[in-house]
Each structure stands twice: as C-alpha cells, then as structure tokens.
Prior knowledge:
Blueprint: H1 12-21, H2 33-54, E1 70-73, E2 81-83, E3 88-97, E4 103-108, H3 111-114, E5 145-149, E6 152-156, E7 169-175, H4 208-220, H5 224-247
Parallel strand pairs: 4-5
Antiparallel strand pairs: 1-7, 2-6, 3-4, 3-7, 5-6
Helix pairs in contact: 1-4, 2-4, 2-5, 4-5
Amino acid sequence: MVFSDTTDKLGLIQKIDYILFGSSTANTNEYPLADKTRDINQWYRTVIGWIFESCGHWQFDDSNFTNLPIARSNCTSGQNDYTFPTDLVEIEEIHYKDASGIWHKVLPLDRSEIAGGGLSQSGVIGGIVNQASEEFLKTNGTPKYYDKFANSYWLYPAPNRTSTDGDSLRVYHTRDAARTGTTTNTGGPFISTDTTKEPGFNRLWHPVLAYGAAYEYSIANTRVDKKQDCFTELSRYQQMIQTHYARRKRDERGRLQVVVQDNR
C-alpha cells in the first residue's frame, strides 16, 4: 500500500480518511496531512517493534533499505573507543579484520567482569579481581572483547593497526525504519510529499498504519466510537503480524530441547 494515491484512492492517507470520515476525499482541515504523516511514522516504528519481538532467527530489516544492516568502519591503532551507528536498535555481533584479512568475532564483555563482579557476558572472562579496566589487555593487538558504553563500544585490546579500507570493523545490528531523506537524517519513514513509497514490511499488513493514525486522531478528538474500533483492529493486526514473522522461517526444523532442572 503506497503512502498516498490521489487518483485511485488506494494509499494510506486515503485509507485514514475513509476510516474516520467514511470517504477517501482529503480531509485536510479536520486532519492535516502533516499530522497524518507524523502519526503514520509513529505507528510505523511501533509495528517494527512488534516484528523485532517475534522475528526469531530470520532477522527483519526494512525493505526500503538498499544495503544490509552492517555498519562498516576503519580501525585506528591504539584507539579503544568506537561509535555505534546512529540508527542502531539492537546489536547482534561485532567482527574485526586483522592485517592479514582474517575476520575475528569480538565477544561482548562488561567492565564489571574485569573487576571481578557481575555475570560473565563473554563466556570466557570470569572476573579478574581488583584489576582496573585500563590495565586489561592494554597492549595493542587483535581485539577479543567489546564493552558497550552509552553510544559507543570499547575494544579490548585496542587494534594494533590503522586501516583505510572503511571495512575493518563490522557491527551487525537491527536498525530504525528507512527514512525518506536519509542524506540529511531529518526525514521520517515517510514525509508528507511521499507518494509511491510503501512501508518496508509485508504488504499484507500495511493497512495497520492507517488504523494506527486513525486511532491517534480519535484520541486527540474524543472520537470514542472510532477509538474503540481502531483499537480492536490494531490488536488484531498485532497478533497477525507477530504470528506471521514468528512462523515465516518454515524452512527450519522445529527442535525439542531438553531442560535439566535440579530440584535438590
């Protein structure tokens, strides 16, 4: 479903008008286009959140992107601190390429493990009592661990080389919806002048964004009847969307796992 179709009335904008006012005629006085766009964008991200919760091993990414959710960057000799991509939602893995072109998986580590406290995140480090993190793997080399800190990650040890290929560190991650106007990083998933752009998830579920926007309008304008109708539709769509994304990996075999429980 495209964002706006003023000819055949098949867009999200026209669907919103039909839900609220019983006609696809543009109701720009009652519900301005800018407000519709903002509310569609809000529900776009809500739907993506639903998908992230249920997509399992087949990671979701907005189909409007033309690249994969892998942030590539250079490494600098002696530099521990590197910045996460700005559109990151969740981190999956970090890989490092050494001077020979060999890739190494970098393991997650929390600084508290180095001091001897906290649960092991790396599965390797069990705690080094009373060692300052500044002293941990302080000789430059091939990074083995990373610690997430605010909008950055800290490599232990720092790389022992400086790269210029733009692809010596890779952060695999999930990310925000693809934006119109990404070059300025100011556009939303949609902007009000969009026409043929479609949401970047399965087309079966595109109308959910119209119901989401109509729901926001109903709250703001005390449309109790429409509010309940839209809420019911949104709940129905959430269930269908999450069921779809949880089951779409039909090529994988389901497996039973034995859980060992000690009741002593």
